[in-house]
């Protein structure tokens, strides 16, 4: 929509750290985009974007940097950095009606999509007030707030005001205490976009991390965790970019700690029960809860 409706050519910035799949991949490859490796300083991608703006071109950018938690994500500094370095104003655009729209199209239904374009925001001019990074973040938040004001009230009601996560672990009836990484790891398991990115886009065999109606073999869970851990060696910013540094690092710690606990339980031939709980609070105090249950069976159970 941001490339079709404008009367000028728009060069979108897209994820360079994850390959696109399916029809999205086909569309992206046909149109083209500026690839940017998120979570790291991609000087090559940044230079391309700056070159477009310096030639009076237009960039299509999502200031939150992704789609894993629409409407409740913190802005990245990219939009502010590009504006400040080139003097380019930012045209805010708010989208409504996109949630589940693709699935409805596949069901031969016609979703109602709304794109509202706001007034241009003047380019960022840095001052002596606050650090450079603080000014970039402040400008990015201004852009995000303006975009939020362009979406419909119905769309705002779909955005969670708060999300809380918890994890409990039990080995043969013994409750495992002191899991400081539990909340972050539970958040990961309740983030379908991230699981799908790893499984579908990156083709990683992590199917065991999805909730099953039956028990799952301990080695299958361990292998899935090991695969994610190996990927973090290649892209250490995968979780920290999406969850923030503190929580993202706790996810990585949780992967390591859970592997050790499962290995110990498997060696002893013990069953492990892992339960996760998500509590999402929406506008008007509407609360939604989601739970996941994992029964992890030892590869060689005793008895």
General form:
elongated
Total count of helical runs of at least 4 residues: 11
**Major β-sheet, in short?**
5 strands, mixed
Structural class by SSE content: alpha/beta
Assess the beta-strand content as a share of residues: 15-25%
List unreliable stretches of 5+ residues: none
**Which strand order do you get reading across the main beta sheet?**
7-6-9-10-8
Estimated radius of gyration: 22 Å
Portion in helices: 40-55%
Total domain modules: 2
Number of separate strands:
10
Instruction: Give the overall average pLDDT.
Output: 88
Q: Kindly report how far apart the N and C termini lie.
A: 61 Å
Helix-strand sequence: EHEHEHEHEHHEEHHEHHHEE
Characteristic terms for this protein:
3-stranded parallel beta sheet, 5-stranded mixed beta sheet, 303 residues, 2 domains
Could you please describe the fold and organization of this structure?
With 303 residues, this protein is α/β, with parallel strands linked by helices. It folds into two domains: 147 residues, no CATH class; 136 residues, no CATH class. 40% of the residues lie in helices and 18% in strands. The chain has eleven helices and ten strands. A five-stranded mixed β-sheet has the order 7-6-9-10-8. Strand 9 and strand 10 form a beta hairpin. The longest helix has 23 residues. It is elongated, with a radius of gyration of 22 Å. It starts with 9 loop residues before the first strand and ends in a 6-residue tail after the last strand. The model has no long low-confidence stretch (mean pLDDT 88).
């Amino acid at each position: 929509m941001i490339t079709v409706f404008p009367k000028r050519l728009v060069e979108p910035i897209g994820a360079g750290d994850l390959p696109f799949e399916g029809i999205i991949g086909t569309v992206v490859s046909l149109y083209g985009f500026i690839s940017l490796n998120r979570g790291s300083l991609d000087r090559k991608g940044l230079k391309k974007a700056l070159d477009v703006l310096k030639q009076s071109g237009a960039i299509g950018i999502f200031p939150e940097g992704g789609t894993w938690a629409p409407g409740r994500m913190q802005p990245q500094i990219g939009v502010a950095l590009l504006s400040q370095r080139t003097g380019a104003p930012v045209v805010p655009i708010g989208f409504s009606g996109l949630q589940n729209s693709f699935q409805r199209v596949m069901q031969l239904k016609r979703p109602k999509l709304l794109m509202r374009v706001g007034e241009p925001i003047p380019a960022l001019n840095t001052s002596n007030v606050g650090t450079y990074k603080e000014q970039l973040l402040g400008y990015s938040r201004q852009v995000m707030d303006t975009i939020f004001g362009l979406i419909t009230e119905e769309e705002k009601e779909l955005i969670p005001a708060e999300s809380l996560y918890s994890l409990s672990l039990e080995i043969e009836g013994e409750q495992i205490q002191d899991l400081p990484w539990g909340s972050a790891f539970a958040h990961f398991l309740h983030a379908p976009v991230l699981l799908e990115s790893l499984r579908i886009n990156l083709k990683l065999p992590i199917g065991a991390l999805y909730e099953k109606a039956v028990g799952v073999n301990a080695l299958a869970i361990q292998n899935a965790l090991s695969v994610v851990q190996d990927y973090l060696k290649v892209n250490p910013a995968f979780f920290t970019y999406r969850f923030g540094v503190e929580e993202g690092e706790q996810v990585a710690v949780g992967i390591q700690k859970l592997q050790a606990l499962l290995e110990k339980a498997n060696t002893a031939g013990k069953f492990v029960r892992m339960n996760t709980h998500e509590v999402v609070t929406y506008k008007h105090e509407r609360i939604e809860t989601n739970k996941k249950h994992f029964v992890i069976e030892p590869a060689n159970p005793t008895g």
